[in-house]
Amino acid sequence: MFLKKIILENYRNYTRQSVEFKSNINLFIGKNAQGKTNLLEAIYYSSTGTTFRHNKDIELINWNNNFFKIKCELIKKDLNRELYIELYYDRQGNKQIKINGVKYRKTSDLFGFLQTVTFSPDDLGIIKDGPAERRKYIDIEICQLVGGYYNILINYNKILKQRNALLKEIKRKNQNPDSLDVWDEQLIKYGSLIIKNRLDFLKKVVPLARKNHNEITYGKEQINIKYSSSIISKQGLDIEEITKQFREIIEKNRREDIFKNMTLFGPHRDDLIFYLNDKNLKIYGSQGQQRTAILALKLAELNLFNSQNGEYPILLFDDVMSELDDNRRDFLIKVIKENQIQTFITGANMELVDSIKQKIEVFRVESGVINGSRGK
Ligand SMILES: Nc1ncnc2c1ncn2[C@@H]1O[C@H](COP(=O)(O)OP(=O)(O)OP(=O)(O)O)[C@@H](O)[C@H]1O
Ligand SMILES: [Mg+2]
Q: What span, in angstroms and rounded, lies between the C-alpha atoms of 243 and 372?
């Protein structure tokens, strides 16, 4: 996949900016607060309709303006022509998505066109933060890979909210709990699909991450990632088994759910556990070990996207290059080069240019203006 060009209008600190990219490594150098992350965020937003900084759409509009526009021009292997993605959002809350000039209604329609894998310092939160962060991570990756998954998530969350409201009402009015039956069926249906998709994703990505990790650490350390579930007893179950176990738990805990006013079991309570040599990485791992695990995982996603789509996604590296030691950086550059992955890297100084011993395109970012390129 090759992102040829982006045009930003009133997007954060960019008023009007058009940039043409190269198909290899694009490096963006600039002092703090100039617009480097904003550029990567705009690319990511065009890919998923959300930002990796979890911002609201309205926060992306330039402070002095009333709307923003993003236009991306990309080339995909399976198409013979350019693909255009256009996004618009204004202060009245109007959102517009156009792909090749055709209007789409939902954010979920964006998934699958421009695929991205990101790595930023915040990604350490996947290991360090709470379970919600890990669920968000795995769900957004699956959204990019599995058509329809986004809608499964939306449906599940809607039903969960309605079921919780009903639980409260049943308790307050001492009602017959049979009214929960229809909600339970829907909860089980969508919840089981979420668990199944998450297990499938891990089944594919974990062996690839282990292989990368093994190479980066010269076989000294092994990572593993397991799905920790409030519903299922073991990994690798099929959808019938998951549904059965989910139903049993929901039925068994109905009283408790009513008493506590909430649905205590389900994929909204599940988690991923990272292990390094069988020790919990969140509890025992050093910062560097945690970062290495994330790097191995992100690179595994590249492999996974490629095996599914026949082409690599775009790689977005915000501010992490300088945090990697020589071995890790060299490994990363080797993967990018061997597979010709279009990559966007940000950094604060030119030292980065010399540390990447490859042909790269250097852009300067200053006060919301990106200046021409200087090839190396
Ligand atoms: N909606 C907005 N309108 C105008 N400017 C904004 C908006 N949102 C953020 N900014 C500004 O954009 C600037 C650039 O932010 P960005 O995060 O891209 O910086 P950066 O170049 O990545 O810096 P660093 O090296 O510190 O990470 C900041 O000064 C920020 O205040
Ligand atoms: Mg930044």
A: 55
- What is the tens place of the pLDDT at every residue in 207-256? 999 999 999 999 999 999 999 998 998 888 999 999 999 999 999 999 99
Q: Is the CB of 36 under 6 A from ligand 1?
A: yes
**Nearest ligand to residue 10 Cα:** 1
Residue among 348, 346, 368 at smallest CA distance from 360: 346
**Residue 187 sits in the same domain as residue 96:** no
- Is 25 in a helix, a strand, or coil? strand
CATH code, 35: 3.40.50.300
pLDDT digits (tens, 9 = 90+) for 332-354: 999 999 999 999 999 988 777 77
Instruction: Give domain status of residue 159, yes or no.
Output: yes
Residues around ligand 2, an ion, CB closer than 5 A = 36-37
State the distance from the centre of ligand 1 to the C-alpha of 168, rounded, in angstroms: 43
**Do 136 and 30 sit in the same domain of this protein?**
no
Considering the domain architecture, whether residues 171 and 267 belong to the same structural domain is answered as: yes
Provide the number of structural domains found in the chain. Answer: 2
Which residue carries 């309709």 as its tokens? 49
pLDDT band at 376 (very low <50, low <70, confident <90, very high): very low
pLDDT digits (tens, 9 = 90+) for 56-107: 999 999 999 999 999 999 999 877 789 999 999 999 999 999 999 999 988 8
Question: Which of 256, 281, 309 lies at the terminal end of a domain, its last residue?
Answer: 309
Q: Look up the domain containing 343 and give its range.
A: 1-115+313-376
Residues 339 and 312 sit within 8 Å (Cβ to Cβ)? yes
